[in-house]
Amino acid sequence: MKKKIEELSKVEEPALAYGLAASYSPLSLIVGGKAATYPSDFDLVSVARKGISKRNLLALAKKLYLTIEEISDVLHISERTLQRYEPSTLIKTEHADRAIELAKLYERGAVVLGSYEAFNKWLRHSNYALKNQVPLTLLDTSIGFTLVLDVLGRIEHGVFS
After folding, report:
1. Least buried of 64, 67, 73, 101, by fewest C-beta within 10 Å?
2. What are phi and psi of 90, to 5 degrees?
3. Domain spans of the chain, in order of start
4. d(CA 123, CA 133)
5. What is the Cα 49 distance to its own chain's centre?
6. How far is 135 from 161, CA to CA, in rounded Å?
């Protein structure tokens, strides 16, 4: 574990030397990666109402290690429609809202499991607490989001999950 932390530090040091943030959080990517601070809930409401650009949505997918197919399933938008959009095209409010929920879930998962990579691995393996379903496959419904968040809460508090 110590070796992994040292490797991350070596990568982040040059970025810090040039005044660059080492990496943006998923939520800051949604608002455009302009803010170094964590966006408030009111910022997120404003972004959801306005819509998220395809460029920001793809940056989010890249940060979360999701394919276009996977993110389109979560957002309930066809993969082909998403591919046809120009980078500056704004994704509608209902899809933007789900993208924000996805980013918030990843932020929570990274806190509980220690990193985005660890959470992504956890998200792609069947889970006994979810009746041996893969958590990623549950994210196409709001109830599925709640189930995954509940399991993360149990893990965080040391309850068998």
Report:
1. 67
2. -85, 130
3. 25-156
4. 10
5. 19
6. 12
- Pair 116, 106: CB distance under 8 Å: yes
Note the pLDDT tens digit of each residue in 72-84.
999 999 999 999 9
Length, in residues, of the chain:
161
Q: DSSP label at 16?
A: H
pLDDT-derived band of residue 18, with 50, 70 and 90 as boundaries? very low
pTM assigned to the model: 0.80
CA distance 83 to 81: 5
Question: Could you give the CA distance from residue 130 to residue 83 in angstroms, rounded to a whole number?
Answer: 32
Q: Which of 41, 77, 42, 36 is nearest to 57 (CA)?
A: 77
Helix runs in the chain, H state only: 2-17, 26-30, 41-50, 54-63, 68-75, 79-84, 93-113, 116-123, 142-156
What is the greatest pairwise CA distance in the chain? 47
Q: How far apart are the C-alpha atoms of 140 and 70, rounded to whole Å?
A: 10
Q: What is the pLDDT of residues 91-109, one digit of tens each?
A: 999 999 999 999 999 999 9
